[in-house]
Amino acid sequence: MLKALKALLRPKSDRTPEDNPGMNYLVAGLGNIGAEYASTRHNSGFMVLDAWAQASNVSFRTERYGDMAEVSFKGRKFYLLKPSTYMNLSGNAVRYWMGKLKLPLENLVVVCDDINLPFGTVRMRKSGSDGGHNGLKDIEICLESTNWARIRIGVGNNFSKGGQIDYVIGNFSPEEKEEMPRICDKVIEGIKNYSTIGPDRAMNLLNTRPSKQ
């Protein structure tokens, strides 16, 4: 109680994200653990968080239900979560950390791959359906809500009938792999904008089609 009171009495410029939970965000990048999945399309969410942590010179540590790192930006703190539950059970990790951090749903951003979008296309939504993505579906079940932000990274659908699983757990092509750092940077910028200028303006800036190569 005394700590909370002291935080409220501080000048706004001196307050930290811990003093105001509304300034804290959970960013869950979806993927599968294990070296064999590291460079696969289904691990696009992991790739974004790895890029963000590397650019911020921070390391992940193993915590309950996943690996966690923290980065800060303009007074906000972002908890970067890579669930260790495998893709189809991502909801367990997200539910646990949302509860532990005592965050409202609007402070959750989930990053995942999407075969329904062409490679290089990025889409942010404030809420919505799972679109057939098992990771999103499990999060919706565990949180009993669809009212949280998600960013989908297009990986294309260049596979024949029945080949979806092999495609998403397959590696990016050399050309796609070369382009992924730029896409990761774009997603990171979108998440920062989401926390500073609001979801609507962030979506307007992020939701653009990739230029033709």
Q: Mind explaining what this structure looks like?
A:
With 213 residues, this protein is α/β, with parallel strands linked by helices. It has one domain (19-206): Rossmann fold, CATH 3.40.50. The protein has seven helices and seven strands. The protein has helices at 2-9, 44-55, 90-101, 134-143, 164-168, 174-196, 199-206, and strands at residues 24-29, 61-63, 66-73, 76-83, 108-114, 122-125, 149-154. It has a seven-stranded mixed β-sheet with strand order 2-3-4-1-5-7-6, with helices on both faces. It starts with a helix and ends in a 7-residue tail after the last helix.
The H-level CATH homologous superfamily, spelled out, is Peptidyl-tRNA hydrolase
Order of helices and strands: HEHEEEHEEHEHHH
CATH class group:
Alpha Beta
As an assembly, this protein is single chain
Overall average pLDDT? 90
> What is the tally of beta strands?
7
**Strand line-up of the largest beta sheet:** 2-3-4-1-5-7-6
Distance between the termini: 57 Å
Largest sheet: 7 strands, mixed
- Output the CATH topology: Rossmann fold
Give me the CATH architecture, please. 3-Layer(aba) Sandwich
- The helix-and-strand class reads alpha/beta
